[in-house]
Amino acid sequence: MNDLAAVELERLESLATLIATTGDIDDAVHRTRTGIKRLRAYLRLARRSIGTNTYRTENAALRDTARLLAPARDAFVIIETARDLGADDATLAVLISDHAQVMSGFERTIRTEVLDRIGAIVSRWQYVMGQSPGPKSIGSGLERTYRKGQMEFETARSAPDAAAFHRWRRRAKYLRYQLEALHAPEPVVGPFRTLGDNLGSEHDQTVLIEVAEHRSGEPGFSAIARRSRLRRDEFRSKALSDGSGIFSHQPESFRHTIEAAVGLR
After folding, report:
1. Is 109 found in the same domain as 192?
2. What percent of the chain has pLDDT over 90?
3. Long-range contacts of 211-215 (CB under 8 A, 24+ apart)
């Protein structure tokens, strides 16, 4: 799967150009975070080939870089989520002001730090690419990711709080990105894509609820919190319904099914 390694190296190198853009910085932040998630999904496929120590080092580096971008991403998404829920102009004005403050800090320090971190990762990535994952590594990564996703699904189903859904969302997205990287057939990828989208929307509502509850004493925010909780419940219900089918297989059986679908067997 040398082509897989080359694609991920190209993706990594493109992130620096993307985040350095002077155009739509909100879009750049979103796309950079997505790119980082795809790279972390790839590392899970390559873990057996590159070794656990290298995997942990590079995964942590990517994770920490993504965390720097999270406040900017959340500040923008909160506005769009509130607007979709029918927030009034005064409420939106507060959120827009918050977004402007976050982006001011981003421009002062965070953008440069993100670029420095990505540069350091790129400088080490040649070794990672030199240990391109073979079929056994890829199969092992798929099985491990699916098993953890299954465990997080069971936790979210039995104790459906924000933290449980957040952990499950990450695992579900890793699986989606792994399947897309392997060019799995659409009937295989589609359910994971739908699940990831619903869990992503659940997360957006959760972030908005936290902000709205913190500002509950200000006009408009209590109403938005109520609407957002109802919408979040809808996304949770959809995700749990889909998850009961997606995560109903034995991890080894899932691995063999995907291996056959993408030509690894």
Report:
1. no
2. 82
3. 211/78, 211/95, 211/98, 212/82, 215/94
